[in-house]
Design brief:
The chain is of the alpha+beta class and about 130 residues long. The strands form two sheets. Strands 1-4-5-6 form a four-stranded antiparallel sheet. The chain has a two-stranded antiparallel sheet with strand order 2-3. The chain is elongated. It has one domain.
Length: about 130
C-alpha cells in the first residue's frame, strides 16, 4: 500500500445535504486507487483518483442513508484505525509544507527583502 494523497472534502447529495469536511486518504494498492473516509471507516476504489472518489461519495451516501433509515445517526462516527490516521497526517503535513514552500517562493519573487524587513508583522486568524 502506497500513500498518494490526503484530502479534506465534503460529500454533497443533490441540494438536500452536504457533509462536514471529511478526512479522505487515497492509497495505491496493486493496480487500483483506494479512497478511505477516515471519519466513517467507509472505503471504495477505482482505476484512478477521480473514479475512487466518485465511488467513495456513493458509498458514503449509502452509509449515511442507512444510518438515517435505522435511526442510528448518533453512532455514525466510526473512525478508521490509527495507522490510516497516521498516514493521513504524514501526507497532509508533507502537502502543507510543499504548498508553503511554493507560496513563499512565488511571493518573494515579487517583493524585495528590504520592503519585507521594514514592514510590520501581523497575525490573521483563519
Amino acid at each position: 500500500m502506497k500513500s498518494i494523497k490526503a484530502e479534506r472534502i465534503r460529500i454533497k447529495i443533490g441540494d438536500l445535504w452536504e457533509s462536514p469536511l471529511l478526512h479522505i486518504l487515497l492509497t495505491k494498492e496493486d493496480d487500483v486507487v483506494v479512497a478511505r473516509c477516515l471519519d466513517f471507516t467507509v472505503s471504495s476504489h477505482g482505476d484512478d483518483e477521480k473514479d475512487a472518489l466518485k465511488s467513495l461519495a456513493d458509498s458514503i451516501k449509502e452509509y449515511v442513508l442507512t444510518a438515517v433509515e435505522n435511526d442510528a445517526i448518533d453512532t455514525i462516527f466510526d473512525p478508521a484505525h490509527g495507522k490510516y490516521w497516521r498516514m493521513y497526517n504524514e501526507l497532509e503535513a508533507k502537502q502543507s509544507m510543499s504548498s508553503l514552500k511554493r507560496s513563499l517562493k512565488k511571493s518573494f519573487k515579487t517583493v524585495s527583502y528590504q520592503n519585507i524587513q521594514q514592514s510590520t508583522a501581523e497575525l490573521n486568524y483563519a
